[in-house]
């Protein structure tokens, strides 16, 4: 009986030991209570007790989550940025921890909903923050307004909003395209002075960057993001201001492929003129015409960029033009000196007295003493025109190398920090235009999929879903517009190997025309693409095709150089042979000697060689051998490159699929 009574009283004993369940206030009840008699037009009281009336300024803690940077415009000096802007401040009037007691529980925070017209339905006081260098701005309203207002029990408020802004960025373009820019985001209160509002940066991570943001910029590299203060004084008072500094370095690889390498090739091609014979007037003048073509190429690049400022690119194009123009003037000087030498020689021959037999007497004069090197140089190159060409072969490359060294040293100086004084105008004459949003697509060949993932922010953890859209570019258009024309240009440049080495105008015109056509083709293709920092497959293709065409032109310079040396050597041999024949002439009254080769022992075995090597071995002229070797080497290397390009860029992507 006693045991039965204990079992029946056990539930009441357990209930007596458990604490009483607290009542939890609903969010709607709390919001109605705190907003009763609340005037959103009056700012909250500060927390500084030394200010008895107002409590000092309201301290607003700011942090920014930078999502994207795009459309960096060098012409208008502006850029677009998308970020999540967060502000935290304290409003004691909204504190609801006073409603909590032993029997009542309050939630950890309240979320205050907003409508699309938040300005007309404002319920609480918020800082009147504006961006000083903003040209255009908008809030994101899809699917609902991207705004968060969170109220904590002690009256602390978190305000978070997603914004897209077009901001001005004062740029210094003296070193373009080797420049580094500092773009700013300045925010301040529009109406409240430092007596009412004080902005401060959050201590930990004041500016967060989205993962992959530094690598997502097409033409710039985001080197660093710094925070600073920019409190300013005006006629209406002193205003608290926060500044975000984004240091952007322009990517150089795009301009290296589109400007520097093509212009470098054109300058070197102009030096081929120094290795051609002075009598090859059409060929050397054709090479000089590349001056005009390069000027048009540089002008098109400047027009495409839209820059009207003098920068490093102007210095580069100007110096390259000077070297190409100098090569053309050098030939004018060579041609003038050659004609002058010919006129002087003819005049001297006419002035020499003749003897009874009709021969002119030559008198040698001892030249003035000079250095040993000068005597050797003058003795080897007797014509002044030839001396000019030989000197130009050294002076032009050395001068160009020095210029490149100066450019590299100037580029190294860009590591020093820049100081900018920014001037903001008070008048904004900007039309209201929507800001387009870009999305980076990873064009891999994996199937389309949808995967859930979780993103962690400082204000909490949010569930997120992502859809990946895999796009494959159509190849047929580029096959017709790019690959087939480039292959044809490379093959056409090889026609030079089958022409005679004395066909100077034809071979030079062919090389220069194919090189300039290839350069125009490359600039046309890349003008449709953004100036990205990495090397694309089309850059590899165009670069190798340019190298083959450039190599074919340099090959003829080697052929022409050895051809002229062989011609001079044959002339000397013919003169010596004619002199020997005159000394060893057989008298007319003596019979000629006959050589009997019947007893000469013939070779019984000769090693067999491949037909192609046999042809090269039979050819004694070095210039001829260079052409024969080039006929095989250039096509073989190009076919090897085509196989490598196909397997690396096509087969590998197919295997990944």
UniProtKB/TrEMBL annotation:
Family named by the database record: Belongs to the ligand-gated ion channel (TC 1.A.9) family.
Membrane topology per record: Multi-pass membrane protein
Domain Neurotransmitter-gated ion-channel ligand-binding as annotated: residue spans: 27-251
A GO CC term assigned to this protein in UniProt: plasma membrane
Main localization (coarse): membrane
Protein name as annotated: Transmembrane ion channel
Pfam families according to UniProt: Neur_chan_LBD, Neur_chan_memb
Subcellular location(s) per record: Cell membrane; Membrane
Residue ranges occupied by any Neurotransmitter-gated ion-channel transmembrane domain in the UniProt entry: 259-288, 482-578
Spans through the membrane: 252-276, 315-338, 394-426, 477-499, 540-563, 628-651
Superkingdom, taxonomy of origin: Eukaryota
Range of residues in the leader sequence: 1-16
Alphabetically ordered keywords of this record: Cell membrane, Ion channel, Ion transport, Membrane, Signal, Transmembrane, Transmembrane helix, Transport
GO terms assigned for molecular function: extracellular ligand-gated monoatomic ion channel activity; transmembrane signaling receptor activity
């Amino acid at each position: 009986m006693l045991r039965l009574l204990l079992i029946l009283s056990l539930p009441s004993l357990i209930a007596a030991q458990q604490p009483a369940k607290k009542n939890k206030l609903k969010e709607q009840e709390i919001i109605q209570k705190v907003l009763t008699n609340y005037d959103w037009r009056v700012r909250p009281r500060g927390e500084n007790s030394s200010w008895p009336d107002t409590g000092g300024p309201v301290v607003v803690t700011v942090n920014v989550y930078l999502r994207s940077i795009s459309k960096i415009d060098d012409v208008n000096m502006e850029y677009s940025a998308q970020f999540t802007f967060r502000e935290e401040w304290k409003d004691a009037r909204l504190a609801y921890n006073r409603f909590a007691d032993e029997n009542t529980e309050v939630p950890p925070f309240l979320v205050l909903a907003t409508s699309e017209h938040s300005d007309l339905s404002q319920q609480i006081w918020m800082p009147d923050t504006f961006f000083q260098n903003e040209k255009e701005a908008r809030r994101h309203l899809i699917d609902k307004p991207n705004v968060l207002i969170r109220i904590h029990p002690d009256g602390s408020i978190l305000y978070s909003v997603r914004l897209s802004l077009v901001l001005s960025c004062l740029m210094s373009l003296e070193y373009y395209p080797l420049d580094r820019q500092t773009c700013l985001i300045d925010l301040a209160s529009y109406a409240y002075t430092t007596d009412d509002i004080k902005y401060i940066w959050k201590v930990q991570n004041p500016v967060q960057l989205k993962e992959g943001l530094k690598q997502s910029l097409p033409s710039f590299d985001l080197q660093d993001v710094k925070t600073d203060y920019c409190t300013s004084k005006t006629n209406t008072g002193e205003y608290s201001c926060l500044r975000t500094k984004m240091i952007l370095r322009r990517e150089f690889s795009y301009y290296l492929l589109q400007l520097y390498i093509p212009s470098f090739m054109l300058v070197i091609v102009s030096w081929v003129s120094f290795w051609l014979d002075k009598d090859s007037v059409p060929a050397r003048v054709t090479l000089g015409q590349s001056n005009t073509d390069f000027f048009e190429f540089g002008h098109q690049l400047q027009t495409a960029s839209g820059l009207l400022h003098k920068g490093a690119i102007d210095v580069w194009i100007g110096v390259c033009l000077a070297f190409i123009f100098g090569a053309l003037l050098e030939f004018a000087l060579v041609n003038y000196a050659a004609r002058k030498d010919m006129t002087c020689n003819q005049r001297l021959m006419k002035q020499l007295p003749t003897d009874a037999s009709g021969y002119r007497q030559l008198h040698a004069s001892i030249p003035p003493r000079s250095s040993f090197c000068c005597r050797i140089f003058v003795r080897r190159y007797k014509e002044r025109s030839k001396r000019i060409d030989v000197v130009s072969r050294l002076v032009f490359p050395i001068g160009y190398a020095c210029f490149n060294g100066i450019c590299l040293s100037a580029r190294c100086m860009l590591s020093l920090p820049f100081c900018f004084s920014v001037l903001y105008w008070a008048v904004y004459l900007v039309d209201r235009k929507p800001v387009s949003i870009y999305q980076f697509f990873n064009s891999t060949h994996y199937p389309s999929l949808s995967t859930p993932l979780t993103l962690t922010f400082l204000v909490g953890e949010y569930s997120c879903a992502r859809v990946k859209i895999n796009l494959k570019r159509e190849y047929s258009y580029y096959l017709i517009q790019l690959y087939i024309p480039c292959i044809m240009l490379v093959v056409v440049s090889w026609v030079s190997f089958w022409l005679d080495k004395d066909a100077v105008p034809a071979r030079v015109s062919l090389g220069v025309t194919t090189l300039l056509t290839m350069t125009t083709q490359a600039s046309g293709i890349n003008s449709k693409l953004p100036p990205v920092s990495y090397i694309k497959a089309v850059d590899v293709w165009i670069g190798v095709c340019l190298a083959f065409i450039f190599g074919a032109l340099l090959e003829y310079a080697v052929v022409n150089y050895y051809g002229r040396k062989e011609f001079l050597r044959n002339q000397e041999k013919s003169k010596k042979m004619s002199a020997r024949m005159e000394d060893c002439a057989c008298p007319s009254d003596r019979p000629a000697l006959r050589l009997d080769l019947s007893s000469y022992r013939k070779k019984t075995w000769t090693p067999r060689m491949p037909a192609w090597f046999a042809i090269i071995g039979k050819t004694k002229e070095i210039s001829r051998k260079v052409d024969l070797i080039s006929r095989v080497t250039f096509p073989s290397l190009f076919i090897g490159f085509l196989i490598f390009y196909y397997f690396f860029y096509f087969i590998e992507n197919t295997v990944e699929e």
